[in-house]
Amino acid sequence: MVIVKEQDVVPFRNRVKEAAVKIGMGLVNQTKLITGASELVRNMLKYGKGGVAKIEILSTSRDRGIRLIFEDKGPGIPDIKKAMQDGFTTGRSMGLGLPGTKRLMSEFEIWSEINKGTTVTVVKWKNG
Amino acid sequence: MEKIPILRMGQFLLVTIQVDLYDQLAENLESDLVNMVKTHNAAGVLIDVSSVSIIDSFMGRILGNIATMSKIMDAETVVVGMQPAVAITLVELGLPLKGVHAALNVEKGMELLNSKLLLNKNEEDEDLEHDDNSDSSE
């Protein structure tokens, strides 16, 4: 799903919710997943000038889950370690987006290269 | 343009958020509310979030802003009806919502606002009495 403007965020959140409901994720984990997704989409819009968000359903023998991939071709993050710290921000927000989202998700991966873009991949397991 | 309606109930402003907010809508709500606190001389703001399924850091910050702005304009803010899953997520996200009072439902929220109003009033009265006493002793 292509995200280029703020109004795209609400339908995207709904798509994430649909996927979470489909695999029978509980309400608390659903809320965590959608909140995290909302943070990452906002980052992508604000810093990466929009990008592509993908939703995948994962199935293993142990558990089912949702994987979200956020790809932008923005300026990239110069210092990922710093960006992952609570309270660090280059914008006018509170700097909770990345570290907070990491706490909400089961798995969190970030890749970024200056002038190439940023990709964030997160996984939330149904029972994790 | 969509808008979140703000109702006036006596000295208080009542906002029920029924839709999922995107950022611009939340920002508009913030400025509308603060303006209405001024124009209506409101003593309190009650925000019902019972049908909100997601509060992320932006929305949380807006709620905090509303509370802080109202406070320095002499109005209290109460957020009512937060869903358990939303509360769990907010705390894990690291958003403590400082300065925002909370109540379980609209009714309790109104009680809270009324009691705060009464408390503030009593304090003022006491201050006045105090002044009277000091005057008489002179």
Question: Care to give the gist of this entry?
Answer:
The complex is a heterodimer of chains A (about 130) and B (about 140). Chain A has about 130 residues and is an alpha+beta fold. Helices cover about 40% and strands about 30% of the residues of chain A.
What does this structure look like?
- The complex is a heterodimer of chains A (128) and B (138).
- Chain A has a single domain (2-125), classed as 2-Layer Sandwich (Heat Shock Protein 90).
- Chain A is of the alpha+beta class.
- The two termini of chain A are 26 Å apart.
- In chain A, 38% of the residues lie in helices and 28% in strands.
- Chain A has helices at 9-22, 27-48, 80-83, 97-104, and strands at residues 2-3, 51-59, 64-72, 107-113, 117-125.
- Chain B has 138 residues and is an alpha/beta fold.
- Chain B has one domain (6-137): 2-Layer Sandwich (Transcription Regulator spoIIAA).
- Chain B is built from 4 helices and 5 strands; from the N terminus they run ββαβαβαβα.
- Chain B has a 5-stranded mixed β-sheet with strand order 1-2-3-4-5, sandwiched between helices.
- In chain B, strand 4 (76-80), helix 3 (84-93) and strand 5 (101-103) form a beta-alpha-beta unit.
- In chain B, helix 1 (23-39) runs parallel beside helix 2 (57-71).
- Chain B is globular.
- The model of chain B has no long low-confidence stretch (mean pLDDT 88).
- The interface between A and B is medium-sized, with 27 and 21 residues.
